[in-house]
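User: I've been going back and forth on whether these two constructs are worth ordering. Before I decide, could you fold them both?

Assistant: Sure. I'll take them in the order you sent them. The first construct and its structure tokens:
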Amino acid sequence: MLDEVINRNEDKERCNHCAALQVENLRLSKELAEMEKRANHDVLTGLPNRRFFIESLEKRIMRCQRYGDNTALLFLDVDDLKRVNDSHGHAAGDLLLVRLGKILKDNIRACDMVARIGGDEFALLLDNLDADQVENKILALMDRFKSANLEHAGQALQFGAAIGYSFVGPTDTVSALMSRADEAMYNSKGDDN
């Protein structure tokens, strides 16, 4: 009889420990998920950051090379962000970046990706589009930027961007693909002048 009471007490104590461990595991899982989000996302825009983007790009390149999929890498550089920051303050510049990030995110498909990869630079991965479709997407995005109606302190802020792109090639590396897209973006700046 005494053994039964001792065993019941031990079982009850074990159950209390199990419940406490489950609560702690849940807390740690939530904390880990939050830390991963902070490590992989831009604080200002909430978009994936450069680190996460590069990891995703590596996977897309491997998939394209293995299965023959088609992915375009777009680089986008915001026009005159320094002028906005100098004229209207950094809060206005931040607002512009957040709005731009939202426009980009709202105008891609679920299979695509947008990330903020630097101060005024964004990158997009667009799957299964040909060159004409990519160029039409760029034109549509430029139209969305022009009609964004961004206001800060009662003043309308106009913004635009230079966008260049490159498709994943059969022997591409991350750096080679990014270099081509970056060069195409800078060449598109020359087209605007």
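The second construct, handled the same way:
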Amino acid sequence: MKKSEVFKGLDGRNAPECFAALRTPCYVIDEERLKDNGRILASVAENTGCRILLAQKAFSNYDFYPALATYLAGTEASGLYEARLGAEEMPGKEVHVFCAAYRADEFDELLKYADHIVFNSVRQLKQFGKTAKESGKSVGLRINPECSTQEGHAIYDPCAPGSRLGVTREIWNREMTDDLICLLDGLHFHTLCEQDADALAATLEAVEQGFGDVLPRMKWLNMGGGHHITREDYDRPLLEKLIRRTQDRWNLQVYLEPGEAVALNAGYLVTTVLDATENGGIRTAVLDVSAACHMPDVIEMPYTPPLLNGEADGNPENPYRLAGPTCLAGDVIGEYSLDRDPVPGDRLVFGDMAIYTTCKNNTFNGMPLPDIYSMDREGRFGKLTDFGYADFKGRLGKRKA
């Protein structure tokens, strides 16, 4: 992804100085970039008739749900709490839920919030499908088309060998009955991760080969997430062609549930340099932000996030390792070439930090949770949180000091 695209929302602003008044570390959500993404997604829906949902697993900052509701059909949830959040904060919109396995002691409550319930196995469809149907919910089953289109990120590949996600055709043939098929309103697949429409085209071919005989009986097909629809070079004409062809061919409603695409390049993580060290010729700037705590995908994916006024990897001109303050030796954000030598007090800004950050961060080592700010079109900030010691202590027990 082009760096100019990542920091487009800061064009015309004197960054990082524009963040000088904010206490770091902090996340800043760019309202205008969110709306830009929303407008792109809304145009795809308008051009095709598909319905697009926010996958809350990637972005669940509900203060922005009222603005996003203008562009989206609703939310997608991975369980009870996300389903409740979507129902409460985007009222009147659809709530879809997929979970790898539902809990019996939560299912009745889940039915209060969900409109669509997608099951991951035939066993769970048997266990809960009739109850969901009798409660007026639209029932779906996740399928596994056994079509891997990504490399290097097996942890994110639902079609990897042995995957627990989705029903293969072999399992379908062995376990499905006509009574169970009659419970279904739709099928769901999710196979992509930060990919273009060509990967969806390949997946749809596999879906047709594996489940083309079932689709005429369905009312909808959910194509999941992983579609990088709002990226500048994404092939939206091809996406729209695939959606229209699918809906026309099988006379069903197509759903998409992107997460990253909704908040792509709509957030920044602002940090301050605390110290600079050197060991074995490697110079390290120690920041007040932690990869392990505040940007966990950097370690889990792994990847090197874009940096304003710096280049990631491969440039030897002024190399520095950027790292966090925790005791974890591997709390490293990445290797960068910086515009100048960092000194304590300098502000650095990481880009594309609205996704998989605020919804995944943690307080390991007693690290404080970074506060979250909104930034409007005029560059004005609104503080949305007030995290502190109580947020760290409260998740570990209930005894009062």
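Notes on the second construct follow. The first strand starts at residue 26 and ends at 30. The domain at 49-262 is CATH 3.20.20.10 (TIM Barrel).
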